[in-house]
Amino acid sequence: MSIRKYTNGVTLFEMILSIGIGSLLLMVLVSTIALMFESRIQQTLVKEVMESGTVILDLMMGSAEHASQITNPTKGESDDIFEVRIDPSDTSGNLEYFSWDPDTLEFIGAGQDGVLTLLNNDHVTITDFIVKNISQDTGADMATFSLTVQAENTIRPDYRYLHTFNGLLRVGYE
């Protein structure tokens, strides 16, 4: 039984092997370039957050891949993002919401009462806000959090709920 030779005496197996190795090297190169750009974007984001007067914290549920959505316990939908606005330059702990240290990205004054505004114009009141496991491991603009909310809906005052969220915290800026 003879092995069929193709151009320049290369076998079919050798051709498939070389194409596979070439494809693998190309994927590694593209991934490396993408990671370099992602790291640069995150560093820029954190720098601009530090210098900004107002930041937006999006409290998001789920993994980093699905972190753009959060379940709204009021309506049971998954397309509402909870938005909390704070002033990072004020670390007195007397903010309307809560405060944080803009130099270290560490949160202080956790547990203060505040207002959590949903993008659909519902309003609920935070009675217990605890941020834990602040870590840069998930990316320069991510941290994990635990949030317990006892809420009263201003549209339906008779509706109250007590719920604990665990997920990711994304730092954005205006």
The total count of strands amounts to: 9
> What is the count of helical runs?
1
Helix content: 10-25%
The structural class is alpha+beta
Largest β sheet strand count, sense and barrel closure: 7 strands, antiparallel
Mean pLDDT: 46
Instruction: Encode the helix/strand succession as letters.
Output: HEEEEEEEEE
Question: How much of the sequence is in beta strands?
Answer: 25-35%
**What is Rg?**
24 Å
Strand order across the largest sheet? 6-5-2-1-9-8-7
Low-confidence runs: 41-174
Tell me the distance between the termini: 71 Å
Count of the domains: 2
Shape estimate = elongated
Keywords: Membrane, Transmembrane, Transmembrane helix
Protein name: Prepilin-type N-terminal cleavage/methylation domain-containing protein
